Hints:
8 helices
Amino acid sequence: MDLESLIQLDKQLLLAVNGSDSLFLDGLASVLTTAATWIPLYISLFYLVLKNNENMKQILLIVASAALCVVLAGTIDDSFVKPTVARLRPTHDFQIGQLVDIVDGYRGGRYGFFSAHAANTFSIAVFFSLLIRNGIVSSLLILWSLINCWTRMYLGVHYPGDILCGLVWGGLMGLVVYYIYYRINARMATGMRFISSQYTSTGYQLTDIDVVINVLFFTFIYALIRACLMLA
């Protein structure tokens, strides 16, 4: 299959998953794609890091690592990749732009390759999954990233190919940043491994992890309620 065939397939797939006749789903996608919706999650992750690390150097190292994930995954994309590749978003595409179902006039910026939402969220999901080493949190963070990816296609501002490349790049950056973090942290930490049933192997207390899980759960509930209220 040549490049042009892949591009056309990408457009067909986008039209298959983009939009719906449901005002509820329109509202839900709009709420979930908004960065402010996830502020409680970021605060809960910071709380988890703050409660479960030995000193301020380690805390700052993790915060800096998370910031580096965003810089490498999303900022590089927005600043260099998108303007260089210059692939029009579906909402701006001359061929299918009129067929794309948009919500409340939202079309996004001009260029969309690759998805910074996918790259940013997946880099954070990968980094914190490796950092915390808890199956439930890892699954929920990956689900969080994939939900963000769904909203971008639903709203018609990214092709599936944009999403896939964003996930691959974000996952790679999450791995790279964690490796850098691991090497630096090895010089700071005591090297202890936690075998208590109250901690993960990397020393994160399960009761503190529950805070992150609960925040994610209630954020999803909040999004559902907001979507229902938008119908009124």
